[in-house]
Design goal:
With 185 residues, the chain is mainly α. About 15% of the residues have low confidence.
Length: 185
Amino acid sequence: MLKECFDMASNLPEGPNKEHMVKYHEYRCLVSSNVIGWSVYSVFIRRWLQFFPADQFLFIYTSELEADPAGTIYKVETHLGVQHHKYDEDLFNIRFNTKHSYGWAVATKGTEGAGVEVFNHSLVAKAGQGIRQNTERRPDKSAEEMRGNTDELTAFFKPYMVQLQQMVEQGLVSHIPDEMMQPYL
């Protein structure tokens, strides 16, 4: 669906505003694709920066949150100018959306591959979510199919990741973790 939308955008009729219209149409394509489109960060960041100053943004990567959850939350509190809170350290050991366990109602305690246990934490239970283990498994794809999918996604995201790296060089976005940029180099 996203590819067809982009194809339509590139086939707009010639005219004085074609470049602007193509970019606008591509933006609309990305907005309508809630699986892949919202992951094209550079397009949305550029748009936001047209309306808000760069110092109002704080860019945090999941690797930062995973490596130092308390420090990352402290960074967010500092950026927002709110009082720092003393958090229960046990909360930082809850993992949502781990491999084969997707959804906010699914949580594990510990780290993957180290005796992960699914557990019910009262904070999540209070929210009415409960915690369950996702036992639904998709049929395994062949290594060749996975490589093809990975190559196709990498090719799709590469120009946007290059744009994001340019934003880093312009001082608009914080450094992109190496492991996130590696496939696009």
